[in-house]
Structures are given as C-alpha cells and as structure tokens.
Amino acid sequence: MTKLSVNINKFATLRNARGGNLPDILKVAKDCESFGADGITVHPRPDERHIRYQDVRDLKPLVTTEFNIEGYPSPDFMDLVLEVKPEQCTLVPDPPGVITSNTGWDTVGYQSFLKNVISTLKAAGIRVSIFLNADVSKVEGAKTAGADRIELYTGPYAEEYANARTQPQNFQLFNDYKNTAFAASDIGLEINAGHDLNLDNLRFFKLHIPQLKEVSIGHALVCDALYFGLENTIQLYKRQLQD
Ligand SMILES: CC(=O)[C@@H](O)[C@H](O)COP(=O)(O)O
Ligand SMILES: NCC(=O)COP(=O)(O)O
Q1: pTM of the full predicted structure?
Q2: What residues does the record give for site: Transition state stabilizer (predicted)?
C-alpha cells in the first residue's frame, strides 16, 4: 500500500488569517495521524505565510508517523532541517515568493549544489527525496547527487488528467510519468509523488505507477475535508491508495 502523508500547510494558512491559534495545527497533525495518515508533510516557505519555522520545531516531538519537511535548501532551511531531523526532507527548487511549487530540479545544472546539500542531510541520518518533473533525462542526476527518492511533480498530470476525461487519446503525458518512475526504480531510487493530487486523479496514478511509495497531499484534501470531514476524507484518500 502506498503511504499517505498529509500536507498541513493549508491549515496553517487558515490559522494565520486571524493571527490566533485556530485551527491548532499541532492538534491537526495529531488528529490526521489518528485518522489514518501515515505521515505529516510541511513546506515552510521563506515568508512563513503558512507553516512557520517554529511550527516545524513544535511538530517534531508530536509527530509519531513519518515527518517530511519540504523546501528549497537555503541556509535557513538547512539549519532548521538539521536541527529538527525529520525522517525525510524533500528538496524543492522553489524561488522565494512563488505562489506554489511549479517545477522539479534540473539535476544536471544543479548537480554539485544538490550533491553538497544531500550529503549534508544524509550525514545527519535524514532520507532525501528530490522534486522531479516527469523527465527521464533528470533521473540519473538525482541518483548521482545522492538522493534516496524522487518525488514526481504531479501538477501537470493533474491538469492533463482532468482534460483526458474528454480526450483520453491525448493523455500522452502519462507515459513520461511511467517512464520516469521506471527509469528511477531501475537504478534504485524510490518513488514519491505530489502536487494537485485529488480524489479523482489519485487512483489512476497509483494503479499505473506500482512503485509508488508515498504521496503527499494537502490542498485538495483540505478542500474535501470541508465537505466530508477530516477523518472521512483521510479514509477516502487512503482507499484510493490500496493495492
Ligand atoms: C512540493 C509541493 O508540491 C508542495 O509542497 C506544494 O507546493 C505545497 O505547497 P503550498 O501549500 O505552499 O502550495
Ligand atoms: N509534495 C506535495 C504536497 O505536499 C502537497 O501538494 P498539494 O496537494 O497541496 O498540491
């Protein structure tokens, strides 16, 4: 079964809208775990518009499943991750101020930078995943940089999946995801995926990428929780991830 890591960024967005502590994201994280989440993901951004650096520190002793911290490896981010020591760190090439993540790493151009960052994280015992587009040509660079896993950036998949309902013959893009996943697993990289996954598109992805270890899902899951409740929603997502 593929693991579900719940990204709790959007709960922090709601909390920050009023400046108080509602919802309490520490309680949210604990509740997600007790409702069945296999992990908790956070993506502290430089402007701290949702998850704050202090949230990450406060979450660490409470999270009993897998803690996954995502972000661009700036000096501040690296200090935080090395202090908190999550089970997994997912490196994302986001420039500061981007609305949301929108591409994977150029593992060729950033090879020596990634190698350096990844060796530092791995020396601290942290598993490293790197955010990658569905592009076979970037897979080898992920391996030589020292990553343990890749996280397939599924934003374009989600967009194409929605269109493919009316024009399934146009769903060529999915071959790129399959080829990238198989090329990665052939050289010993494990496969995560995330971004814009939802209750419509998750099952198809899971069924066609059998190596899928873990997905991290936030935005759509939080939107669904408004209608179905958090516990039901987590169970609905988990059902999509069954073998
Ligand atoms: C790497 C990735 O795809 C996620 O972290 C996603 O970008 C969520 O971040 P936001 O909640 O800031 O949009
Ligand atoms: N790594 C992807 C993630 O954590 C959540 O992305 P989204 O579901 O909020 O688009």
Answers
A1: 0.97
A2: 151
